[in-house]
Design goal:
Layout lengths: L4 E9 L6 H10 L5 E2 L12 E2 L13 H5 L3 H17 L11 E6 L5 H14 L8 H5 L3 H10 L5 E2 L7 H14 L5 E8 L4 H9 L28 E9 H6 L6 E10 L12 H13 L9 E3 L6 H15 L7 E3 L2 H4 L6 H15 L1 E2 L21 E2 L4 E8 L3 E8 L4
Parallel strand pairs: 4-5, 4-6, 9-10, 9-13
Antiparallel strand pairs: 1-7, 1-8, 2-3, 6-7, 8-14, 11-12, 13-14
Length: about 400
């Protein structure tokens, strides 16, 4: 019999709060983090708005020397991991470090390092490139730095599945504990890609919203949606084998019950039009958790605000749940924090856990106008009700579909 896995700690760095408490308070208020791009001059770009992290100071979470050897995405991960581990109450001096692992992913790594060092290469030649360029930029360095900072010597992996990275990371950590590879996993995603090449690349794909009004730029599931808004930050959770958590008297937020992932095998950027890949991922997570589709009353959707994603995700939900789809509350956290790419699923997982804890489903901010064929409940207003189960979806370029099923801890 597989082992039960629970959530005992959470940490978040987001555009609407530098910790879980402030992040969730903003979601409850319907407060967004959108504004003009400040990290570079966006004149000449089609997009001028992003959801930037504000007020972050790496020195508040780690020593100066350590911070200097990390790019922003790694700093965000270490900061969120510090909060999550403190929240969990785990004392690494009391743990077998070989049984405490790490699964932290990033979709892009450091575009900043690539941009910065390529400019040096062109202007001054190869001898001027930073010797640390490679360990600064590669995506696995978030997991590497988290494990180094906190002494995590167990299984250490970096899942990279574009915008499904955070969800896959948590799912793979869940599996690692179930299968006795670890007793504790620090898991999640991180991203810091609000850079010239990052924004230019997504603009060229016509994926980003070109709307300059911060209140109307990110409109998941709305007929007037115009693309996603680039966000940044990190979400990290501590997952723990149930008996291990109980033995040390840990506070248990929720239980991870199931995990499903599939590939569309369809297109490098567009989800499958019939939504069957995402539908199968949801149903796999539900089956893995031992519940029925009709038990689901809430889904935190991928909900990017692009035309294709929101339409095809709607089709996926209908394909998975049939007539029951109309009874499910569906919201998009991206309506307030934008799309955190590799960090999105992890931050949204934290939103699900907090919503379950407080019996509060946040609204999809800005949602006003229904679109043809998209006739489900997209949470134009928040709900206050018990949430026995929550399903969190992520879809990534390349056809990656991932869903995690969370349940109230029943003892």
């Amino acid at each position: 019999m597989s082992r039960r896995v629970v959530v005992t700690g959470m940490g978040a760095i987001t555009p609407v709060g530098l910790n879980v408490k402030d992040f969730f308070a903003s979601l409850k208020e319907g407060k967004h983090g959108f504004g003009p791009i400040t990290k570079f001059d966006s004149a000449g770009y089609k997009c001028h708005v992003a959801a930037e992290v504000k007020g972050f100071d790496a020195a508040s979470y780690m020593d100066f020397k350590a911070a200097k050897r990390m790019e922003l995405f790694s700093q965000y991960a270490v900061a969120a991991a510090k909060e999550a581990l403190c929240d969990s109450g785990i004392d690494m001096k009391e743990e077998d470090p070989w049984r405490v692992g790490c699964a932290v992913g990033s979709g892009t790594g450091s575009l900043q390092a690539i941009e910065r060092e390529y400019a040096k290469l062109v202007a001054r030649g190869p001898s001027r490139v930073n010797p640390l360029l490679v360990p600064l930029m590669i995506t696995n360095m978030a997991a590497g730095n988290v494990s180094i900072q906190f002494g995590l010597k167990g299984k250490n992996i970096n899942v990279v599945t574009a915008c499904a990275t955070g969800t896959n990371s948590i799912g793979e950590a869940f599996r690692s504990i179930q299968c006795k590879e670890a007793d504790v996993m620090v898991a999640g995603g991180t991203e810091g890609a609000v850079t010239p090449v990052g924004v230019a690349g997504f603009c060229a794909l016509t994926a980003l919203s070109a709307v300059d009004d911060p209140d109307r730029c990110s409109l998941p599931f709305d007929k007037n949606r115009s693309g996603f808004v680039m966000g940044e930050g990190a979400g990290i959770v501590v997952l723990e084998e149930l008996e291990h958590a109980k033995k040390r008297g840990a506070h248990i937020y929720a239980e991870v019950l199931g995990y499903g992932c599939t590939g569309d095998a369809y297109h490098i950027t567009s989800p499958a039009e019939d939504g069957m890949g995402a539908a199968r991922a949801m149903l796999s997570a539900i089956r893995d958790g031992g519940i029925a589709p009709e038990d689901i009353t809430y889904i935190n959707a991928h909900g990017t605000g692009t035309h294709h994603n929101d339409l095809y995700e709607t089709r996926a939900i209908k394909a998975a749940f049939g007539s029951h789809a109309g009874k499910i509350h569906i919201n998009s956290t991206k309506s307030m924090i934008g799309h955190l790419l590799g960090a999105a699923g992890a931050v949204e997982f934290i939103a699900c856990v907090k919503e379950m804890e407080e019996g509060f489903i946040h609204k999809t901010a800005g949602y006003e106008t229904p679109d043809e064929e998209m006739d489900l409940d997209y949470c134009a207003q928040p709900y206050r009700e018990e949430i026995p189960y929550a399903l969190s979806n992520s879809l990534g370029f390349g056809g990656h579909n991932a869903s995690v099923l969370i349940g109230k801890y029943q003892g």
